[in-house]
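Encode chain A's predicted structure.
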Amino acid sequence: MALRPLETEPGVLVHSRADRELAVRHWLLSTLPDPKKGIGEWRATGVAMLPLGMLFSAVRLPAQLVLASPGACSVPSAEIDATLGEVLGGAPVICDPRHQRYYVLVPASMPVTWSAAADDWRVVDVDVLGRGTLLGIPKLSRTEPHPLDTYWSVPMESAAVLGEPMVVARFIAAAVHLMGPGEQ
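Encoded structure for chain A:
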């Protein structure tokens, strides 16, 4: 039996967290020809390799750039995650602590529509990833920082809710400015 959304006021539906997570899971796995493969990878390793460029793309940020953002220097990962959620407007972000990288999930069109900016960003090791790239997407329950495990730094709250390209671009510009010329 499916859970029905709650109606808090006439015409306003509230979906439970479990319903939203199920929708996100199905949406992410719909990028695969066989979604069962992704489910198996999540069970076996905690991370499923999903193709970019169909439903979403990703902006890869080095940890050095993220740590240059206001309020993020020398603070625990949970605080960095909270800061990222705030400055990126709740955009879903995946952290790969092993390789010291963050991935902001953005619309699939961003690699094409922002290609000129993406070329400029490569100088600071930022890359906009799209078609032809696989990204390790952690299972949705991985929301706590771990020293070596990929996790959701900012969890995806609802299916298809992605980062706004302009907000991500402003974040990159501000972080580059804060890093200063010697650190780039």
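Strands lie at 6-9, 12-14, 47-51, 56-62, 93-96, 101-107, 127-129, 134-138, 151-154.
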